[in-house]
């Protein structure tokens, strides 16, 4: 997958524009409290957080507020339309602790062991993010005691089991609809 081409694709940016409107709707805010979900993920002040697939920023702004000025949030999405939208929201909110980037989650370009918490909210299962390639990259960027938080919508398709079977993460339980995992020390192979 060439995320660079996909992210600039006029077709994909136009195709996903209606979903962006849904992501920002009042109904979504009424049905899903982003702060409650982020608390379930274990977002805390001072953390360095990677948000994979930030979309229109539904979780980005609340997460940035929760980690505070001492924290750092990297909001990542492959689609330039979403990145532009979130960048503007961050600017309008005056947030200095957020970096919005258009990148491929399978090859983030981030430094190894630099992230406290990875958020995979509504992005798996997704055909362009195969777990056998995504999980090793998330394992690589997480600190030794780092956590992975996965919110699945609308259904799981066996994702929680696949994460455990990867050998890269151990389960910490589920809170507020979010599955939590701790980075394992090993680099076990992925099995599905």
What does this structure look like?
The chain has a seven-stranded mixed sheet with strand order 3-2-1-4-5-7-6, sandwiched between helices. With 192 residues, it is α/β, with parallel strands linked by helices. It has helices at 3-8, 10-15, 17-23, 26-31, 34-41, 60-67, 80-93, 131-141, 159-165, and strands spanning 48-52, 72-77, 98-102, 115-121, 142-151, 169-175, 178-183. Mean pLDDT is 86; it is low at 12-18. The protein has a single domain (3-183), classed as Rossmann fold, CATH 3.40.50. The two termini are 20 Å apart.
Short characterization:
Helix content is 38%, strand content 24%. With 192 residues, the protein is of the alpha/beta class. It has a 7-stranded mixed sheet with strand order 3-2-1-4-5-7-6, sandwiched between helices.
Task: Record the SSE blueprint.
Layout: H1 3-8, H2 10-15, H3 17-23, H4 26-31, H5 34-41, E1 48-52, H6 60-67, E2 72-77, H7 80-93, E3 98-102, E4 115-121, H8 131-141, E5 142-151, H9 159-165, E6 169-175, E7 178-183
Parallel strand pairs: 1-2, 1-4, 2-3, 4-5
Antiparallel strand pairs: 5-7, 6-7
């Amino acid at each position: 997958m060439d995320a660079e081409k996909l992210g600039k694709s006029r077709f994909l940016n136009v195709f996903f524009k209606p979903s962006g409107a849904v992501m920002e709707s009042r109904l979504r805010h009424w049905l899903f409290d982003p702060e409650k979900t982020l608390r379930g993920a274990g977002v805390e002040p001072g953390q360095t957080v990677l948000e994979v697939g930030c979309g229109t920023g539904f979780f980005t702004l609340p997460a940035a507020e929760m980690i505070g000025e001492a924290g750092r949030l990297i909001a990542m999405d492959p689609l330039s339309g979403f990145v532009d939208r979130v960048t503007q929201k961050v600017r309008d909110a005056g947030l200095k602790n957020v970096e919005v980037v258009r990148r491929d989650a399978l090859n983030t370009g981030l430094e190894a062991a630099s992230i406290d918490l990875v958020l995979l909210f509504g992005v798996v299962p997704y055909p362009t993010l195969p777990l056998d390639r995504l999980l090793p990259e998330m394992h690589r960027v997480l600190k030794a005691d780092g956590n992975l938080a996965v919110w699945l919508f609308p259904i799981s398709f066996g994702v929680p089991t696949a994460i455990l079977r990867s050998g890269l993460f151990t389960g910490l339980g589920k809170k507020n609809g979010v599955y939590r995992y701790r980075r394992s020390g090993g680099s076990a192979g992925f099995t599905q």
